Amino acid sequence: MGILSNYEPKQVLTFFEEICSIPHGSGNLDQISNYLVKFAQDRGLRYRQDEAQNVIIWKDGTAGYENSAPVIIQGHMDMVAVKTADCQKNLDTEGLDLEVFQEQGENWLTAKGTSLGGDDGIAVAYGLALLDSDSIPHPPLELVVTTDEEVGMDGAMAIDCSDLKGRLFLNIDSEDEGIFTVSCAGGLCATASVPYEKEEKAGTVLKMKLTGFRGGHSGVEINKGRLNANIVLGRVLNAVRRAVQVQLVSISGGEKDNAIATFSEATVLVPQAAAATAEEIMKKEIAVVNEEYATVEKGIEIAVSAEDCEAVTCFTLESSAQVIVLLMDYINGIQRMNPDMENMVQTSLNLGILQTTPEAVVFSSALRGSSETEKMHLLERVRSMVELVGGTVDISGNYPGWEYRPESLLRDTMVAVYKEQYGQEPVVEGIHAGLECGLFSAKLPGLDCISFGPQMRNIHTTAEVLSIDSTARTWELLKSTLAKLK
Questions:
Q1: How far, in Å, CA of 224 to CA of 238, rounded?
Q2: Beta bridge mates, 335
Q3: Are 449 and 397 in contact (CB under 8 A)?
Q4: What are 378-382's contacts with CB under 8 Å, separation 24+?
Q5: How many angstroms from the chain centroid is the CA of residue 83?
Q6: pLDDT band for position 465 (50/70/90)?
Q7: 254 in the Ramachandran plot: left (φ > 0), alpha (ψ -120 to 50) or beta?
């Protein structure tokens, strides 16, 4: 007997415990993919496993539902597999050690020393429980389980949807019970390269580093008004440029294009007589920024060191001015709010990474947009801005958004079922981050889609927990929704 055998819903938790016994971190999905195939084979269900290890399983509708519109149940099979420093488990070859605990009268599930993989093993467990049952009323079902969602939605990008008939799409990849997600942003990475000319000069080299920024996710936290260290660096350098002759030696900042930069630094050359003035301007500008953003940031710090040099390889004055002005004016942050959903960001850009190579300064940005046309228009704005200083822009990782549908049978049905079950309205919202729903919406025209799930906390970490009680409530919600789609 498993550790979850005495908890409800037994159908779901039995499959979840089996999934947890199989290693299934991103990139290590042979066993879990084949497990799903065997599940279908053992029950005589039609299935397809593709080269990307995605698995689709079909099941006919139950009595009275045979001619109902098919419903797609979708989740991903991979988890973010991490462990504590003292955990001896090999997550490539071993399953998880589950543990149940209580908190404020509710039952919770966690894994000892590792992440749990509730994201998104619970979706797979729900899907298998539906397909395994002969007593749950439902329309024809198409269970779609994708691979490597956590490392770039690779499975959803690769999957062939030509044999999917459903246009009602239940994505079970959200972590907050009572919140229905009905749109998400598409995105891409825009990498701008701005070439520069070099020369050798004497003067004082100032090394400046900005730290102490709060940072955050460039999608879900772009609306919190937090400063981007790379953008602040442009402000500081431009203030210095207005007062003294300044030439760049190098510039860098940030770690990921989809993370709001928490640090940024520059090495510059100024005339020896102007070094003290330049340093004073740098520090004064940061003092002003700290005053302006005192309620948002926790306190930005600046460190400056100076060294007199007889010969330094640096950017020419013209190249320095081009890079500094571009950084000063670089598009960043929220560009438009969604006109249909209150407090929902429509388009944004985050200048996540600055780098200096031997030939160019590289600006790497994450562009997001719920509207595909607006996302691509934002890209054109970046291209135009960069081309003015002789640069070029390359794009990668382009994935589509999922636009809000003003009319949705599926959303109306789920909201009504939720009100019946919980006695209150659910929260219906969009998110300014990517979900597989966007990719499927692009592949399946007319897709009516909603994302939901049971309550989880601290996903992708060793503190990840899943509410067993919420899992049960969400199971009832899912079953009742399918029963209504007759």
A1: 25
A2: none
A3: no
A4: 378/331, 378/335, 378/347, 378/349, 379/188, 379/190, 381/331, 382/190, 382/192, 382/331, 382/349
A5: 21
A6: very high
A7: left
